[in-house]
Automatic annotation (TrEMBL), chain A:
Subcellular location: Cell membrane
Protein name as it appears in the record: Hydrophobic amino acid ABC transporter (HAAT) family, permease protein
Pfam families xrefs: BPD_transp_2 (PF02653)
Keywords noted in UniProt: Cell membrane, Membrane, Transmembrane, Transmembrane helix
Main subcellular location of this protein, as a coarse class: membrane
From TrEMBL, chain B:
Any Gene Ontology biological process: L-isoleucine import across plasma membrane
Family: Belongs to the binding-protein-dependent transport system permease family. LivHM subfamily.
Phylogenetic classification of the source organism: Bacteria, Pseudomonadati, Pseudomonadota, Alphaproteobacteria, Hyphomicrobiales
Keywords assigned by UniProt, alphabetized: Amino-acid transport, Cell inner membrane, Cell membrane, Membrane, Transmembrane, Transmembrane helix, Transport
Annotated signal sequence range: none
This protein's record includes keyword rRNA-binding: no
GO cellular component: plasma membrane
Cellular localisation: Cell membrane
Membrane topology qualifier: Multi-pass membrane protein
One example GO MF annotation: L-valine transmembrane transporter activity
Membrane spanning stretches: 7-33, 53-80, 92-115, 135-160, 192-212, 266-285
The keyword Isomerase is annotated on this UniProt entry: no
UniProt-recorded name of the protein: Hydrophobic amino acid ABC transporter (HAAT) family, permease protein
UniProtKB/TrEMBL annotation, chain C:
GO biological process: L-amino acid transport
GO molecular function, one term: ATP hydrolysis activity
Protein family per UniProt: Belongs to the ABC transporter superfamily.
Pfam families the UniProt entry points to: ABC_tran
Boundaries of every ABC transporter domain copy: 5-236
Protein's name according to its UniProt entry: ABC transporter related protein
Length: 316, 296, 239
């Protein structure tokens, strides 16, 4: 009994770890490859979650919906809308110093949250959306569904990882890193810096949207608290920094490591008496904040440092 | 008309004062240290709780206890700069932005750890509003906020234009390399930037908490409009940031006035979006700010 | 009263390979010395090296008996060395008066009012612009503000990086006249200059750098008369 409990704990840990891995890969495209600071991950994640939820649920009198589309189409819709939101921010801010993009992205996340909370016709406000379907739900019943979903999430992780790696090694990715490392000379070499940056930001945001959608399908319920900037934006930054920005494997490893640390410490703190349990969750936050400082100062390259892709000569 | 002045204009000016005081620090830090300080809102929260803690011990008007909040924010800011921001100074400034993002969380969790996460209200008792000319009613707190901000603006202006430290700060903001060549004491300039920014953050936070209530997200929620105010005023222009604060405050409050018909022009729940939209508009059309600040 | 600047065997650069190698020169107190050479010869780098803005890998830089290499830039102004960069040499958002005032902060002169008066006598053009932001002035006036700022600390030695760059011929003459006036006050000047012929006419000594190394040194007159120097650096035939 204890063992099955442990097993399913591991399953849920890996599902959320996988969703974080996707977010981390997305941030790695934006920051690790493009040098773009996104402080509004929660916003794009939220757009994706709500888009997919609305597209796939059956009709409800409380919010927009009733499309009942299959989950994969929901994910596509999530990617498109989150990408569009990212495009709007990027168009305005990429030509400015990265701090402005940071400020604007946190602003857009805030506005998206306001829309989610206030537009009840669309999202059912703070009451949230329920009965969000899971993909492949017909295959199994009960808790086995979690295992199927685990497979589904990590299948998506694999796809995103392959896509991100292809991007990283492609001429596009090389140009991007050239721009990140020396904007002036890249521009002098005829690269359209602004266009590259916008593309990067949009791709990253679209992937974040997919991650959001997956979380909605996992929990089957979605409310505005899902877009908590602490749990979504901040933790993802710590993960990427710890894992190794610029390295896709590092992004996945960072996500799993930090998420495991975060979740496992929760088990211990939950066993404390109630007044200490809440306190200790603040201590946990404090420690993560400090962990980020340590990583920034001492281990900037992370667990798996960035490697330049090998130069491949094409044989004519 | 009178309703407009009493219920929209006066509160707007009070909110504007809060933004103004916070935005000054953000603008000075951005101008001199060249990074967007994401922990500034939470620094405000910390100062507010410092005042709140003293108010629980000393039963006087909380405004008199602001120096304790200021001491707390100044010491915190100087320590954070010394141990967390300074080691990153040689790297691209974006690393400091990321660091400050984490420090925001550190400040917030310290507040929650020490004081808990419930709303806390200053027990100042209910004061009747002042009535001017039998028609205008303004709350004492709002009046205090606006007047303090005006006094601070004058003092700050004097400090920046007349004193040696103030002029050195402007010189570093203007051109850090030339400031170095001129032999200016950059470390001292940075120290004073934090002292002033942190002190004003404590004042702004306390007014914000007195206006509503104190909670751990108090400052974080104010960060966005304060960024907007700093950009509006032109980065590195403290007086511009002050003006920007008032403009954002007015725009937010007045946007929910029923200018046309009986409904609010913009639903009050979207108030915070107004600041953001103004900021985006500015970044598109006039990124150097309304008052010709620098574009970093 | 003032001391000799001696640079001996200095190699320096910006972290990568050295830009200047084994460069030596001396500047006697109260003289105008000019560093000449083709583009990329390391003239500005030499000036920056004296002002501790590069990484020195070998050699020593002395003002009198005082070793300057290893000092921080901000420590040099109190030692009596001030510098005027080539571009971005004024605080554009600050008034002319404030620019001059900033010049006194690192090393306050004994009598600030008197120093200010002396500087304004050197640059009378600035008198009616004192309240104007320096960024709104013409290039020549800005150069005056920058030189004025450097003189406000009562330095022994002033380093000037191409003080006439981008100026009209009329202003060029003015600046060279001003340099002679500054020398009269006992201040040593070491400058980099593109207008080699005019510079050598007012300079006591010239030092020519090529590819980051000493090529030739001599008095202004000697260098102006030298056949090789004339052919290579002064654009052919003598005036």
């Amino acid at each position: 009994m204890e063992l099955t409990g442990l097993f399913f704990y591991a399953v849920s840990l890996l599902i959320l770890g996988g969703i974080y891995a996707i977010l981390c890969l997305a941030l790695n495209v934006q920051w690790g490859m493009g040098g773009l600071f996104n402080a509004g991950i929660a916003g794009f994640y939220g757009v994706g979650a709500y888009t997919s939820a609305i597209l796939t649920t059956s009709a409800s009198s409380k919010h927009l919906g009733g499309f009942g589309l299959p989950v994969p189409l929901g994910l596509v819709g999530a990617a498109i809308l989150a990408g569009l939101a990212g495009w709007a921010v990027a168009r305005i801010c990429v030509r400015l110093k990265s701090d402005y993009l940071a400020m604007a992205s946190i602003g857009i996340a805030e506005i998206l949250r306001l829309v989610i909370v206030n537009e009840s016709w669309l999202t059912n406000g703070s009451l949230g959306l329920s009965r969000i379907p899971r993909p492949l739900a017909d295959l199994t019943t009960g808790r086995m569904g979690d295992i199927v979903f685990l497979g589904f999430v990590w299948f998506v992780v694999l796809l995103v990882y392959l896509a991100a790696s292809r991007l990283h090694d492609s001429p596009w990715g090389r140009s991007l890193r050239a721009i990140r490392d020396n904007e002036a000379s890249a521009a002098a070499a005829g690269k359209n810096v602004e266009k590259f940056r916008i593309q990067t930001f949009v791709i990253g945001c679209a992937i974040m949207g997919i991650a959001g959608a997956l979380s909605a399908h996992y929990f089957r319920f979605l409310s505005p608290t899902a877009t908590d900037p602490l749990l979504v934006t901040f933790l993802v930054w710590v993960m990427l920094m710890a894992g190794g920005s610029g390295n896709n494997k590092g992004a996945i490893l960072g996500a799993l490591t930090i998420w495991t640390l975060w979740s496992v410490t929760e088990i211990f703190t939950n066993r404390l008496p109630p007044e200490w349990a809440t306190r200790s969750s603040f201590i946990r936050m404090l420690l993560v904040g400090l962990l980020l400082q340590v990583v920034l100062q001492r281990f900037r390259s992370g667990l798996l440092p960035e490697k330049s892709p090998p130069v491949k000569f094409r044989q004519e | 008309m009178i309703e407009f002045v009493n219920f929209y204009l006066f509160p707007a000016l009070a909110i504007g004062s809060i933004y103004a005081l916070g935005a000054v620090g953000i603008s000075m830090i951005f101008g001199i240290l060249r990074f967007a300080h994401f922990a500034h809102g939470d620094l405000m929260t910390l100062g507010t709780y410092g005042v709140l803690a003293m108010a629980a011990i000393v039963p006087v008007n909380p405004l008199l206890l602001i120096p304790f909040g200021m001491a707390l924010t100044i010491v915190s800011a100087l320590l954070v700069d010394r141990y967390f921001y300074k080691p990153l100074r040689e790297l691209p400034t974006i690393y400091t932005v990321i660091s400050s993002f984490g420090i925001a969380l550190v400040f917030r969790s310290i507040v929650q750890l020490v004081w808990g996460s419930q709303n806390q209200v200053f027990s100042t008792g209910v004061k009747p509003p002042l009535v001017l000319f039998d028609t205008f009613r303004i709350s004492v707190l709002h009046l205090q906020a606006v007047i303090s901000t005006a006094i601070i603006a004058v003092l700050l202006h004097y400090f920046l234009t007349v004193t040696r430290t103030g002029r050195s700060m402007r010189a570093v903001a203007d051109d850090p390399e030339l400031a170095e060549v001129s032999g200016l004491d950059t470390a001292k300039v940075i120290r004073w930037t934090w002292i002033i920014g942190a002190a004003l953050a404590a004042i702004a936070g306390t007014f914000a908490a007195l206006n509503t209530s104190a909670h751990p997200n108090l400052g974080w929620n104010l960060l966005m409009p304060m960024f907007a105010a700093a950009i509006l005023g032109g980065i590195g222009k403290p007086m511009g940031a002050m003006a920007g604060g008032f403009i954002i405050g007015l725009a937010e409050e007045l946007s929910s006035y029923h200018w046309i018909g009986d409904d609010a022009l913009i639903s009050p729940s979207y108030k915070t979006a107004v600041a953001f939209v103004l900021m985006i508009g500015l970044l598109i059309f006039r990124p150097q700010g309304l008052f010709k600040g620098r574009l970093l | 009263m003032t001391e000799r600047l001696s640079v001996s065997g200095v190699s320096a650069g910006y972290g990568g390979p050295p830009i200047i190698e084994d460069v030596s020169l001396t500047v006697e107190p109260g003289e105008i010395a000019v560093i000449l050479g083709p583009n990329g010869a390391g003239k500005s780098t030499l000036l920056k090296t004296i002002f501790a803005l590069t990484t020195v890998s070998a050699g020593s830089i002395k003002l009198g008996e005082k070793e300057l290499s290893g000092c921080k830039t901000s420590a040099l102004v109190p030692l009596g060395v001030s510098a005027v960069p080539q571009t971005k040499n004024v605080f554009a958002t600050m008034s002319v008066d404030e620019n001059l005032d900033v010049g006194t902060y690192a090393a306050p002169p004994k009598d600030k009012a008197a120093t200010r008066e002396r500087v304004l006598n050197l640059f009378p053009d600035l008198r009616d612009k004192l309240k104007q932001p320096a960024g709104e002035l013409s290039g020549g006036q800005r150069q005056m503000v920058a030189m004025g700022r450097a003189l406000m600390s009562d330095p022994k030695l002033v380093l000037l990086d191409e003080p006439t760059a981008g100026l009209s011929p009329a202003y060029l003459e003015r600046i060279f006249d001003l340099l002679i006036d500054i020398r009269k006050t006992g201040i040593t000047i070491l400058m980099v200059e593109q207008n080699a012929r005019q510079a050598l006419q007012i300079a006591d000594h010239g030092h020519i750098l090529v590819n980051g190394r000493n090529y030739a040194s001599g008095t202004g007159k000697e260098l102006l008369a030298d056949e090789d120097v004339r052919r290579l650096f002064l654009g052919g035939a003598a005036a």
